[in-house]
């Protein structure tokens, strides 16, 4: 039986949802500025959307939610110890080609990104970390450990997998602490063949810039399919939002900012056009949305939602060409000299909750003089059927991606 490396990814998102209302001069000034695209984007956006399509194909009409950033960081860190075709598959899967520079450039970009994401932000918490739990009986290459610590800020701990129950408790206790008890029992059914467990976690908690008014939340129909309708608590708010009508993909895109340089993109396809939208998702599409969005007054209806996703990536990533690392063909000799080591399991879990909570609504009085005319109602965007949701950081990095099929 080969020695096994269990790779666990975990992602937790708990954004307290509040909608944007420009209640201060500082806020007004910032929302009028065009989005500034960060230069730090080590991973290919196409990897995120390719992975989304694989998950959507496997579970049509189901909720999808995952963190492309979390998965990309983990794969990039794993590539540090991969060799030959195993390494090539990982790097190609992440989109590293001649046009994207060197492998070292990829790792340096991730190091820079992790450093930027770690900086404190008012109203937003984003903690990302990596940990290696290693059996003392298996010698791990110093070069791998040093690179993991330096480039990916990984913590390392000895773990005695000869006592699977003890090792499992050690890892799960660590995870629970890092996520403030929100994720428990991440690792299950460890056995004595494991030699290392890698854990990646992202804890995201943010507030919109202004909260919804609870008084405006009412039960409304959500059309899961043409035949299935469920009642959901629907939040409502009228304000200025980034907006773009993508005629080529028959969808409307609404950008709602969180505090701290994060933005939720809510993408509502026209009736019956979800498949067309999903097939057209790519990095170029995302850049178009971000570049072409303009501010306009909208009446936005957004359901309160709580969805989660749990994925066995060793069954998913081979469909994107990353397969050897999960088989006896794996070459992970950059991690240890043992030739019979492979990744036995790669778990990714994600959860998102959206509700009215957030900062106190800004109290401001603004007097505007205008010619009298008949009041004009702003256009409505009612998210009462399946839609796609992205959370992007600094208008570049895709932190989270999913489909809300059933709130």
TrEMBL record:
Signal sequence, renumbered to the chain: 1-20
GO MF: acrosin binding; phosphatidylcholine binding; protease binding; retinoic acid binding; serine-type endopeptidase inhibitor activity
Keyword set, alphabetical order: Signal
Cellular component terms per the entry's GO annotation: acrosomal membrane; external side of plasma membrane; extracellular exosome; platelet alpha granule; platelet dense tubular network; protein C inhibitor-coagulation factor V complex; protein C inhibitor-coagulation factor Xa complex; protein C inhibitor-coagulation factor XI complex
Serpin domain span: 49-407
Gene3D superfamilies found in the cross-reference section: Alpha-1-antitrypsin, domain 1 (2.30.39.10), Antithrombin, subunit I, domain 2 (3.30.497.10)
GO BP terms: seminal clot liquefaction; spermatogenesis
InterPro entries named in the record: Serpin_CS (IPR023795), Serpin_dom (IPR023796), Serpin_fam (IPR000215), Serpin_sf (IPR036186), Serpin_sf_1 (IPR042178), Serpin_sf_2 (IPR042185)
UniProt record similarity statement: Belongs to the serpin family.
Name this polypeptide is given: Serpin family A member 5
Organism field: Panthera leo
